Amino acid sequence: MNAGRHWRATLGVAGVALFLLAALVLGQAQAGNEPKPIRELSPAELARARKLQQRRQQRISRKAIAYLWDQRLDRETGRIGKVQGRYLQALCYLALAADGSAKYAGKPGLEKVVASLRQPLADLAHTRRAQRKLFVGTSRDALMFETHAVVALAYEQLAASNLAEPRTNELYLKGAASAIAYVLDYRRRGRNYARAGGWPVNASPHNRNRPDRRCTAWQLLLLKAHTYNGQKVNSTAMKEAPNFILAAQRLAPKKTAHLEKAEKTYKKWARKLRKGEPLPENVRDLINDYLEYQRQLDESGGFGIDTIGVITPSATAVGLYVMGLFNFEGRDRHAAAVRAYLKAPLVWEAQRFFLTQFFATRGLYVYSEKYQTMDFHNYLNRLLALLEQKQGADGSFPLGSRGVEELNRMERVYTTAMCALIVNCNRGNLLFDRLPY
User: What is the pTM of this model?
Assistant: First the structure.
């Protein structure tokens, strides 16, 4: 009897959080189930579950930061990795800021990295011009504007930091403004949001009129961060670019009288259809209409890379993030995007896995905070389990998909910095991670 009471007490104190997390994740995996609202959990249950999760986040993050800043940083030059130097320095600096560790503050290695990031801004220190157009990226290929945005985001973060001299903060802010002025020239203006409103992946003539939604999300993040630093940005871009991304969401089709007839026809002829028996042409047409309706219904809420192709987890993550970034008010569409994303399997080898998780975790966090649901909490537990499995003894993470050659050459510096940014998505240490409402 005493042993039984002791077991129950132990479960109540130490095991409730684990049991709660497992139950919530299992419940979320069942298609069609609505997530359990936070208000249905007791404060004690919620506190225990979050504390356990935070410990896991910190363990993963600290190991990743140690790998980047203790093992991969060249303290003589400030380089981290062998290629795309300034981009990886910016990414690693943002990862360190997201982690919140003060271990490297004032150390020569960090100072070398910051000095290297500051190098493109040398001319800005001696001019009073309000704005120049400055490219700060490290690629002229598929990652041109992505690397440009990440380096400029590092400037925004440095401008908001507690640096020794206010003039230095002003220099970083001026650098970010110059980077924004440069990239604004390449946005395809217009309100035909199927093909206009956003930015291309690079400045090549071939791509100038082909805006890309993932690249556009990086530029919007940069513009939003600039506003968080108290600066004005192009209002037209802030309206057209989000709408360009949101236009790629698949909306649930309306069930018309024709489709109701098609559904009845499908149910009536389903057995013969399964047996492969021939069907009258008019019956085949109705069945095809019903199956197309079902396909659209299954995809509803998700996003595609364009407005007509298939939906993808990466595009849905970007759409979900932009909905949160701009405090999207259509809850039904927002919830549909969450459901569509959570249906996708969590696969390390998926194309642009790290970019997808960067945007998905932040999008889910904003949604869950706004509507007080457990979607983010449950998803992060699934993701942490995968990260714990993949993280090496040295703290690094392996490559997933090898689809983008430029990323392949950055190898574990890129993957590890991105994972640090992913696991710290809800810490609020980065300027651009503040909640938008």
Answer: 0.85
